[in-house]
Amino acid sequence: MSYTKEEIFDEKVTRELAQHYSRILELLGDDAAREGLEKTPERVAKAMQFVTQGYGQDPAAILKSALFHEDYSQMVLVKDIELYSLCEHHLMPFIGKCHVAYIPDGTITGLSKIARVVECFARRLQVQERLTVQIRDCIQDTLKPQGVAVVIEAEHTCMSMRGVQKSDAVTVTSAFSGNFLSDERTRNEFLQLIRR
Predict the structure, then answer these.
(1) Active site residue 90
(2) Computed from CA positions of residues 90, 92, 96, 102, in that sequence, does the dihedral angle turn out positive or negative?
(3) Which is the most buried residue in 13, 65, 178, 196, by most CB within 10 A?
(4) pTM, full prediction
């Protein structure tokens, strides 16, 4: 499910955000009217609307847009899904990969829909822990599979550019349901597959 520029960039919201960003630049000690910054408030306003467009999307509807009845009950894994999100504590990016698997119970979805669900939740102000659980719960509640597994590995610029300034730190979160939670062999198979 893609959105047009008009749906992402609301002109009224862009104008209001731009006014605030102009003031922020001034409070930081710069001149928002100088040549290099003249259009920055509007650019940042549009960038923020783009990176938070997930608020206007329904992840369950994304999955439901491509449901198919299929007699397949083995693991379906989509791994290395690029992930870009904003930490809600500092409004700084965290960037990484998401691995999602589910075991169908009569219903499958289009593979691209899994990646779109990840993007939908990532394009909101987030913490990685909540993001991991939201992806799992959406797939579990919508597809009603035998189980769902989600692992996210991400680097947080709020840790690398400020604060503790540790640039090589990677945060890993996981969330499991159904067979992935109750069956150690199934969970281990998933973990081995995402390490390859």
Answers:
(1) yes
(2) positive
(3) 178
(4) 0.92
